[in-house]
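Quick one, T. Sequence first:
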Amino acid sequence: MNDLMTKSFLSYVDLKKQALKDIDEEEAGPDIEMGQLDPSDEKNLSKFFEQVGAIKADMEEITNLLLDLKDLNNNTKSIHSAKILRGIRDRINSNMITVLRKAKTIKVRLELLDKSNLDNRGVSDVFKEGSPVDRTRVSVTNGLRMKLRDLMNEFQGLREMIATDHKEGLKRRYYSATGEEPSEEVIEKMISGNGNERIFEGKADLVMENQERHDAVKEIQKSLTELHQVFLDMALMIDTQGDQMNDIEQNVANAKAYISGGTEDLNQAKKMKKRSTLACWIGVVLLVFIFVCLMAILF
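Structure tokens:
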């Protein structure tokens, strides 16, 4: 139990440090940029980072499953037994089911995190929109989505690699069976699962092997398509929120510009006032001098 509590605390500390590091120091405010939060901020963010930690744990599991899927795909290149291929296909399907379940869980957790961030702004003026705590929450949440978008691209790369490997494998097996290079039309028919019996007529083992490969590719492509949509839904949410963050930053920048401009105008006005005062005094002195000269001449 103590180990679990220690691990949980260290996870919170690490997440907080990373969040503070990710936020621009000028925008974050003195407490955030120094890495020092008052007790109310700490309490407010502790639950938030606990939720973030759960999402990151799921992301790590998905990453590990992705590596396993890549290894399984590489293993299929050197295997020609339909039975062994069937076993690998089952493992791939099992991994994809787990990945899909984890991805959907992350999607729900992110939506809850967004709602929590929005609700938190109404708890107190200290946590209002644009406050250091609010910017920490939004920045970390958006950071998770950007990492998920990178993970989505990794799975998209796997999807393309599987399709390419399957196509190249069919070309090699066709050449081995016929001694001829297959045309694109023939390859497309083989990819669709049509014509394998005729092409490999009399070679039942090759027919079974190709059928297993075809079924495996078809199932994983279907799962990857569904997974891509789940990731896409999560990744697209960053665009709208990213625009909102940019608007906040632009407003801050504009406010700084207005303040800077106002300060310059005040300084200019002070200089003009000094010049006007000096000119008035010079005018008075000249008038007095002229008056004295006239009195001397007349009297």
